[in-house]
């Protein structure tokens, strides 16, 4: 179920940013499906809450894949958008993800370095061990933080932000994410989600200079509940 204004889970809000816990099924920005994007839902929420006349400004600073859940940041002013984009370029925004996989990685923790190439026709990336034409270097660090009955919970820190990076790189080491048919998991989740959650984001607020650390609760679901 995609988000509506009534069930929007706001994790942080000030004059500069609004941070949401995205549900599976939400698209961050409009696409060819024509489904209502999360950005529009957030705009409606701001418009109603603050009785704003006319159009509401909302800047999309980063995205999450549709079946993924967790922390997503929107900028409420063009200045905040510009400054946050610079922080992303300067790699001063730190994001942590949780991923549930069935196949235990060979190493408890590791750094994965690959070269990802996106195929726009099937909206899928492939990881190569060495650089090929039109590929982009992808680096992530993971550690296994919990063993469940049939699955393993990995904590993932991204060093680069490539298309489907976590999904693709974990699949490349034989540990596709639960529910992720596109990257080799054997069956889909009933709600079409995948067990990938943007768990935490921390950064220095570019306007107030305060340290912001936001943790997004995991979905209320059996496997995720076992992770906490």
Automatic annotation (TrEMBL):
It comes from the Bacteria. Residues 16-172 form the Pseudouridine synthase RsuA/RluA-like domain. GO terms for biological process: pseudouridine synthesis; RNA processing. Keywords: Isomerase. The keyword Hydrolase does not apply. Gene3D superfamilies: Pseudouridine synthase. CDD domains: PseudoU_synth_RluA_like. One of its GO terms (molecular function) is catalytic activity, acting on RNA. InterPro entries: PsdUridine_synth_cat_dom_sf, PsdUridine_synth_RluA-like_CS, PsdUridine_synth_RsuA/RluA, RluA_PseudoU_synthase. PANTHER family: MITOCHONDRIAL RNA PSEUDOURIDINE SYNTHASE (PTHR21600), PSEUDOURIDYLATE SYNTHASE RPUSD4, MITOCHONDRIAL (PTHR21600:SF83). Belongs to the pseudouridine synthase RluA family. This is Ribosomal large subunit pseudouridine synthase D. The lineage of its organism: Bacteria, Pseudomonadati, Bacteroidota, Flavobacteriia, Flavobacteriales.
């Amino acid at each position: 179920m995609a988000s509506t204004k009534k069930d929007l889970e706001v994790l942080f809000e000030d004059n500069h940013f609004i941070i949401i816990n995205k549900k599976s099924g939400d698209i961050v920005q409009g696409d060819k499906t024509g489904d209502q994007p999360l950005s529009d839902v957030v705009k409606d929420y701001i418009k109603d809450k603050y009785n704003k006349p006319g159009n509401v400004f909302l800047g999309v600073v980063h995205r999450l894949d549709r079946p993924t859940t967790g922390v997503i940041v929107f900028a409420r002013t063009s200045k905040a958008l510009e400054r946050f984009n610079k922080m992303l370029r300067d790699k001063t925004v730190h994001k942590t993800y949780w991923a549930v996989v069935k196949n235990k990685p060979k190493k408890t923790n590791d750094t994965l370095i690959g070269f990802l190439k996106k195929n726009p026709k099937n909206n899928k990336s492939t990881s190569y061990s060495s650089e090929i034409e039109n590929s982009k270097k992808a680096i992530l660090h993971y550690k296994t933080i919990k063993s469940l009955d049939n699955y393993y919970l990995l904590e993932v820190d991204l060093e680069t932000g490539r298309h489907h990076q976590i999904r693709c790189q974990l699949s490349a080491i034989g540990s596709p994410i639960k529910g992720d048919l596109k990257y080799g998991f054997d069956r889909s989740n009933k709600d079409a989600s995948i067990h990938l959650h943007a768990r935490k984001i921390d950064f220095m607020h570019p306007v107030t200079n305060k340290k912001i650390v936001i943790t997004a609760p995991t979905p209320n679901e059996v496997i995720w509940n076992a992770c906490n």
